[in-house]
Amino acid sequence: MATLRTFVHVTDGSGVTHVFGPADEVPEWAQALITNPKAWAEAPEASNVSHSASTAKPAAKRAAPRRKAAPRDSVQ
Length: 76
Prior knowledge:
It contains two helices and four strands. By secondary structure, it is of the alpha+beta class.
């Protein structure tokens, strides 16, 4: 069974944040979202993570950088 070394915060598909610690049993959906290997005292089995990873939300896309406005020509 997977065991955490420290406390982690995980947001589920509905946007609700859950906190798991060393004494908690981490559900499979949360195991797939905890990607920091240093958080685990005993890492989860690969079969559990790969099964749940397909249900994880894709990473958000970054917005394009803003362009500076062209300087105004002053006509007198």
